[in-house]
Each structure stands twice: as C-alpha cells, then as structure tokens.
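Researcher: I'd like a candidate sequence for this fold, 248 residues long. If you have to choose between options at a position, lean toward the conservative one.
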C-alpha cells in the first residue's frame, strides 16, 4: 500500500448545489481549483459530513469524486468519505470510489452502530472487508463530539494495526481525549501517521506532542446562511461558501 503524504492541510469542502437541488459541478471546479492553489494543501477530503455524501445518489458520489479530482488536475489525492451502512454496501461504495479516482477512503462508522451499538470485532471486520474488497487505503474515522459514539481504544488499536489502514483520524472540538488516544496509538503503531480534524479549535497541541502530522479543515457555511441543522439536508442546498477555520 502506498503511503499518502498528508502532512499539512487537508480541506474537507462542501458539495455545492444549484438552487434546484442538482450538484453544481461548475462550482466544484472553482472551489477545488482554488483550494488546490493554496500552499500547504495536501489533499481534498470529499463526501464528508459537510460534503453530504450520505444524501447523494451513487452516481452523484462518483461524479463528485471525479469532479474534485479534475479540479486539481490530478495533482492532489482525493480522499472520499465511505458512508455505506452495511459492510457489503460500503465495499461496493469503496470500489466505485476507486473507479472514480479516489486515493483513499475516510471510513465512517455504520450509522446503525451509532444508534444501537456494535458487536466486538465488527468494526475490525468492516475495515478488513473494505480493504480486501477494494484495495482502497483506508483512514479510521470517528466524530464523537457530535455523534456521541466512539470506538474504544482497543478497537482503535486493532484497526490501526490492520493492513490497508493508513492513518487514524478523530474529529473533535477539543483535543484532550484525542491527545491521550493518539499517544497510545503512536506507541502501539509507530509506523502509522495520525490526523486531527477540527472546525472550532486549533490542534497544535496534539500535532506537536503525539505524532499527529496533519489537520483536516472542515468547510462550514457562515452562520447567517443557515439557522438549523435540519436546513442543511438535501431539501435545502447550501451556497458554495467556504471558510477555513483552523490551520497549523
């Protein structure tokens, strides 16, 4: 498995839409090319939470990956959110991401797990099946501050040690828990690089003390453009505004 060099900024752009609800591929070209022109940007993380990947059709997901890749002329790796519920479903999603030009997959926990929990070993099996089925390098991802759910430390360590998992990543409004876990993971898997993601606070403490070498900067519309979380769903498309709110 080739190792991605993500030491720097890895923006997670929104997926822009037209007023009638269609994906705005022209806006993707403008947004992606602008991000790719910024010094220190090492990849684009598409179809994340802000990218609304779970609300797109399979064809739209693939076209968004390809559009962002074209927007940077293939110079930067495209990391695609893998959000499918079941393991077989997510494997198919990962295969489509590879065909569309993704260089790695940001693997979400099954949303069913967030509601009902999961059996021991299920997350490890999910990552194993994803890599064996698609060959796509994988990034362990969790978002405990918002979902209120997280993998326990033993599960994270076992996933991080698996073939095909290139880089655990935690999104958080605070680096306290992430710092402790990064230190444990860094000791157990010294060859695995770690990432922090944030929309609210700078991650310099964990980047300098735990081996965390990159930050994913989530795109977020200005507060004036939206008043409720529900309005961010597919029935109401956000304008293609983008704000970088954290950097190293």
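Model: Candidate sequence:
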């Amino acid at each position: 498995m080739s190792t991605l060099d993500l030491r720097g900024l890895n923006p997670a752009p929104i997926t822009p839409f037209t007023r009638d609800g269609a994906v705005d591929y022209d806006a993707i070209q403008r947004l992606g090319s602008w991000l790719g022109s910024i010094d220190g940007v090492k990849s684009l993380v598409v179809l994340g939470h802000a990218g609304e990947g779970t609300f797109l059709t399979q064809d739209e997901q693939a076209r968004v990956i390809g559009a962002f890749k074209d927007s940077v002329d293939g110079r930067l790796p495209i990391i695609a959110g893998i959000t499918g519920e079941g393991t077989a479903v997510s494997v198919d999603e990962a295969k489509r991401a590879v065909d569309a030009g993704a260089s790695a997959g940001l693997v979400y926990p099954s949303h069913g797990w967030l509601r009902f929990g999961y059996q021991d070993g299920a997350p490890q099996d999910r990552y194993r099946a994803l890599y064996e089925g698609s060959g796509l390098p994988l990034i362990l991802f969790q978002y405990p501050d918002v979902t209120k759910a997280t993998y326990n430390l033993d599960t994270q360590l076992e996933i991080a040690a698996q073939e095909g998992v290139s880089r655990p990543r935690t999104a958080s409004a605070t680096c306290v828990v992430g710092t402790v876990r990064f230190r444990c993971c860094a000791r157990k898997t010294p060859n695995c690089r770690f990432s922090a993601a944030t929309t609210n606070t700078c991650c310099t403490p964990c980047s300098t003390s735990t081996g965390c070498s990159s930050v994913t900067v989530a795109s977020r519309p200005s507060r004036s453009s939206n008043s409720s979380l529900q309005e961010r769903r597919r029935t109401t498309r956000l304008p293609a505004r983008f704000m970088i709110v954290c950097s190293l």
